């Protein structure tokens, strides 16, 4: 659709600011932008102060652009959320995005830039499934086998590979664009595994393992996505190297926010955007009133679950609107449990990081970098289990968490103090976990990332490395680069 395009380049910005070459030599662009009253007509509006919006705004600000970030919540970070006030002894827990993998170049780049350290996480050392306690070393050695029909000895993850191996080989032989390969996007993971002869136990095991990581269930996951993930890498496994930011993952969005300062407007919920002959008019609400702010470009850096409720006039393209309305997200819940004593460190403990088929799914000692006798066990559960827990009261969630812990560690009740949960699908300004590759959605990412002047689109759902903090930042950098090049 045709729109009146108002171009903002670094050159035109400098002309409009009437700054001499001497000042340009003495001061960086960001200092000049703050020192002079840049016209509202040149403002770039960023919706959302998650890592996508923050990284985009930060780079635009450093390049000298007039940026305003509107955030509906009272704090930055989006789905990065560290809880601190809920616990004793200065303990904290990650209730949102958590892990930094070895390949997460953007997260590592900005952690280095802001002088933040990344702490390696514990590897899986215990398994509790079907009422059986299994030591990870015993599983790896083949001494003990998983109590699932069809499971191979010596491994936890990757049990599905032999049932899809012919498809992995086909991709390597004919390429990703092969019609046979692309047809897999019409099938679910569950359907493909059944076609490959996988027993129901293997599908159940995939639900507890890989589908938990994707926050959904095999019946809602694209078979193409699963096959391609095994072609590109060996997939997520018990040996995947992970980490998190020392002191709390929220330190990264806070570092961005500190640099942006008053350019971020908290408790500003965007309702609608209208294009005009001179640019954009964005309508938002605060706790007390409704307001309008002007700009020339707008960056949407919120999940599609929120974007779909923002009125854009004139509307976005038909294909983008369709993807916004239908993109798949999973369900995810995290439960943090404080105990008086770190009983999981005892010699007879099954382990500190345990994979389980209880509603907790992944439960692990989180406070490894925090001193003191008290400790926190953190759980990550998703899919139908998260949906079920999400429908319960906080008290009921804690009862199930407490019972599950006792099944894994028999003496856990003796040290239980309290717990707290975060169900992201009930969060007013998120309403989802993170995006996933649903059935027949292989082209969604490219469509959702595509610019429709004067609108730009960021967020992990638009990134190549989707469903991660790294993907969120990747998308923010992509958008800032696109705007600066204009």
Question: What's the arrangement of secondary structure elements?
Answer:
Elements: H1 10-16, H2 21-26, H3 29-35, E1 44-47, H4 51-62, E2 67-70, E3 82-83, E4 93-94, H5 105-113, E5 118-120, E6 126-129, E7 132-135, H6 136-141, H7 161-174, H8 179-182, H9 189-195, H10 200-208, H11 210-214, H12 223-232, E8 243-245, H13 251-260, E9 264-265, E10 269-275, E11 280-285, E12 290-295, E13 297-300, H14 304-307, E14 311-313, H15 318-326, E15 332-339, E16 353-356, E17 362-365, E18 375-382, H16 383-390, H17 394-408, E19 416-423, H18 444-449, E20 455-457, H19 469-485
Parallel strand pairs: 1-2, 1-13, 2-9, 6-16, 10-14, 13-20
Antiparallel strand pairs: 3-4, 5-8, 6-7, 10-11, 11-12, 15-18, 15-19, 16-17, 17-18
Name the features:
single chain, 486 residues, alpha/beta, FAD/NAD(P)-binding domain, Polyamine Oxidase, Chain A, domain 2, 3 domains, seven-stranded mixed sheet, five-stranded parallel sheet, 34% helix, globular, disordered N terminus
Structure explained in plain terms:
- With 486 residues, the chain is α/β, with parallel strands linked by helices.
- The protein has 3 domains: 10-77 and 250-326 and 438-485, FAD/NAD(P)-binding domain, CATH 3.50.50.60; 82-123 and 242-248 and 330-426, Polyamine Oxidase, Chain A, domain 2 (Alpha-Beta Complex); 149-232.
- 34% of the residues lie in helices and 18% in strands.
- The chain has helices spanning 10-16, 21-26, 29-35, 51-62, 105-113, 136-141, 161-174, 179-182, 189-195, 200-208, 210-214, 223-232, 251-260, 304-307, 318-326, 383-390, 394-408, 444-449, 469-485, and strands at 44-47, 67-70, 82-83, 93-94, 118-120, 126-129, 132-135, 243-245, 264-265, 269-275, 280-285, 290-295, 297-300, 311-313, 332-339, 353-356, 362-365, 375-382, 416-423, 455-457.
- Strands 7-6-16-17-18-15-19 form a 7-stranded mixed sheet. Strands 9-2-1-13-20 form a 5-stranded parallel sheet, with helices on one face.
- A hairpin with a 4-residue loop joins β10 and β11 (280-285).
- The chain is globular, with a radius of gyration of 24 Å.
- The relative contact order is 0.18.
- Residues 1-38 have low confidence and may be disordered.
